[in-house]
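Section 3.1: Structural characterization of target chains.
Under the original work plan, the team committed to producing a structural model for every single-chain target entering the pipeline before any wet-lab resources were allocated. The record below documents one such target. The sequence was received from the expression subgroup and is listed exactly as submitted; it comprises 454 residues.
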Amino acid sequence: MALSRRRVLQGAGALSLLAGRLAPALAQSAQPALAGDTPPILFVHGNGDHAALWMTTFWRMESNGVPRERMAAINFTDPLARSDDKIEQASRSSTEDQRRELAEAIRELKQKTGAPRVALVGSSRGGNAIRNYIKNGGGDISHAVLCGTPNHGVYAWDDGLGNEFNGRGPFLRGLNDGDSEVTAGTLFLTLRSDGLDKYAQADGRFVGKPGTPTNVTTEGPALKGATNLVLGAVDHRETAFHPRAFREIYKFIARHEPSRIEIVPETAVKLSGLVTGTPGGVPTNRPVPGATVDIYRVAAETGERIGGPLHSSQTGADGRWGPAQVDPSWPLEFVLTAPGAATTHIYRSPFVRSSEIVHLRAARPLGPADAGAGAVVLMSRPRGYFGLPRDIVLFDGKEPADVKSGVPTDSVTTLRLAAADVGRPVAAIFNGERMMMRAWPASENRIAVAELTY
């Protein structure tokens, strides 16, 4: 899908947080105003992901008065879907696995808060688990927000019917059966992209079949009976994590506009999280014991460390690290040393609020494509994908070759540096925000990652 810079800028203009002209399609009946406090909210991540992606959403909720203890984010044990939902597959989960884990997380949040009903917000595959839970007896859900969920499949084909994402398969046909595609008693909102979601495309190139019709359109995430909103020129993950998505999530659940979109900093910031692994290259949320997490303050101008470690801890059987106390203005370097994995140096823009979901996974292993590189640097945009003219993506003044215009396709891009570059500062620029990092020797099985917090 070819996009001009003008079209993208027009799309960005449509994302104005003051715009109120997005009319819902097939909107459900008018919603009553909530009595009392906003219900507790459980956030549900997508395929292969983890709870940490919701961190900035938590911060925006807190900045609008939602108490931290009234929110939770699930970590599915094995977040990747099976190739066939009914066939056991190592380190992958079935739809029933996810429904069962989600039910337990809902029970825990209700018990913690004393609330009879909770709201659920899901990204991508997380919406499948939400719908499955509600359809199969989950009457304790007040609101369901589905962000970029492929509700009618990533494709709809007669082959591979056992795949969870096949719109013609039994799982999605079961959820979509009937005149209404939502469950009575729960208010539903869907958020989708205006053509830039790689999992809502008419052509099969993103599922390995270029030129083959998917029989799915950009309207695939919409549901009959729900309030359906189009957010504009956002990518698949941004349907959940973009500031505009936050506005619609908050407004739908709280029944009024948020007082602010920006995040209000805290004076004292405490961080902690979970170290998880990728056995056999498959991302899981299974805890990794015996991993070491060191945190350094770094200079914003050079990426060089300022003093010794601010924090150092080793994970136990539960995989937890922290807590670490940091200043909300400090850029940070996390050094994750996990058994059997590359030593990963993660450079982060400042954390302006506390979080208990700063979850860490080691970077991908070095591979054949990295042979001969003095250093390997990954740029990570966990709450969105690279690949639009909106992005100015530079490493030390160079644009990585795999960042192209068109439909955004990946959240990570790679720069391979010469041996002479090892140890020197490297500038990573995300949409005008400059981050400095250091290049570490690939020969020592070390990888540097520049990760934009926002």
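The helical segments are 5-14, 55-63, 95-113, 125-135, 170-176, 238-241, 243-254.
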